[in-house]
Amino acid sequence: MCYPLTLRRMVTLIEQNPAxxxxxxxxxxxxxxxxxxxxxxxxxxxxxxxxxGNGLELIRHVAAQGWPCETLVISVFGEDDKVFECVEAGxxxxxVKGQGDAYLSDHLHxxxxxxxxxxxxxxxxxxxAVRRGQGQxxxxxxxxxxxxxxHASVLQDFGGKGFGTFxxxxx
Length: 171
What we know:
The protein has 171 residues and is α/β, with parallel strands linked by helices. The chain has helices at 4-15, 29-38, 55-65, 80-89, 101-112, 120-132; strands at residues 20-24, 43-46, 49-50, 53-54, 70-75, 93-96, 152-157, 162-167. The longest helix has 13 residues, at 120-132. 43% of the residues are buried.
């Protein structure tokens, strides 16, 4: 489960960059959809496990709208099927939690420079899967257990670049 401390740490990290700002932070999939109805950030940091659904639904929604919004998954889930599902749905990157603030900051810069940030262990497994001929159409249905894990929040930067994550509220 994601604790408010995690969200505070991420927001603090984002706010340390003078070119970035937090656009909005939400705790549920429903709140994310409502927030996106008001404004679309340039990027979302999305956690897969939300109390009322799967962050994958949000990734698919953003992709289906055709919005110019980068989506970066930050999750505890690193299983191949989860990664493939997110990438196939439109995620521009996939990071496994717990790598530290500098790591996240570097990958956010990479995202806005046109990169596709991927945790090294995820990249290795993606490459192995491509070598085996997997990846295309290999994603399984969303796992119901995801709804019991992390939350998220959405973030945006001043220069027209934005981010988002779904975690517990800033209380």
